[in-house]
Amino acid sequence: MSDLRFHLPSDRAVIAVSGEDRQAFLQGLVTNDMAKVSGDQAVYAALLTAQGRFLFDLFVIEHEGRYLVDCQGSRRADLVRRLSMYKLRSKVTIADADHEWCVALLFGADALKSVGLDAHAGKAIPYGGGIASVDPRLPVLGVRLVLPRNEAHAHLVALGAQEDLDGSAYHQQRVALGVPDAGRDLVPEKSILLENGFDELNAIDWQKGCYMGQELTARTRYRGLVRKRLLPVVVDGPAPAPGTPLLLGDQEAGEIRSVAGDGRAGLAMVRLEALKPGAALRAGDAKVSPTVPDWMRLPEPDEAKA
């Protein structure tokens, strides 16, 4: 029996950025290189504050002469407002396109094959009147689709996929892989990209020119200032609520950010100095054991000391 699943996330939305200056406009604002974006290549990126703190994560693809941007649904109006602030004389139009388009997630062992994609991060093809792309963060996450809203469900059912109505199966997979979700695991105007895996998850181009928050992001990298990382954790005991402090003895060593599935797995921000063999970390009444996913690059132990 196929494990092919799909989820239509209510917490993701689509905005459209169109006009002849669309590439140059976003190039000066976001963390990735917009020259990479085309009808057959999606990118993952972030918009930061001037101080280099997280504001929005963005999946960007080109479709019929405009960018379709998959963003956090509850904050899309704020994203449109903020982008419009920087428009000035640029020949761009920024609009909420959620009435027309929706985001869909297709996952499972056969997800890429089912729509004719291979495991190349961000690779995209036309599909169902929209675009299907390999998740540009990690191909193992499956396919992200931007589809006409009124047709999306029928296209996905036609693939033989079962619907993951509440998204629990998708988020359990994501959490196990250690991949953050902007709405659950990051704090706008506070979170730092390099603590949350955005470098290894292909959201930052270190060769491109300046963008909002670029100087401080680069300084964090080159001066080795990352002291914490968001890590998957195994929970043994009562599931701790998001925000529960992570303790090593009586010392705070981080905090729980989200818990998935039956509460046995989650994501936690963990101080790197607490990643010691045999370290007994706790959150509330539960024992918490961090793991380091294969895709993640951690600094050498002496670099992680405060």
In short:
This protein is of the alpha+beta class. It is 16% helix and 32% strand.
Instruction: Label the CATH architecture of the largest domain.
Output: 2-Layer Sandwich
Q: Show unreliable segments.
A: none
In total, how many domains does the architecture comprise?
2
Helical stretch tally: 7
Please state how the strands of the largest beta sheet are arranged side by side.
8-9-10-7-1-11
Q: What kind of sheet is the major sheet? A: 6 strands, mixed
Q: Tell me the overall shape.
A: globular
What's the name of the CATH homologous superfamily of the largest domain?
Probable tRNA modification gtpase trme, domain 1
Helix content: 10-25%
Overall number of strands: 17
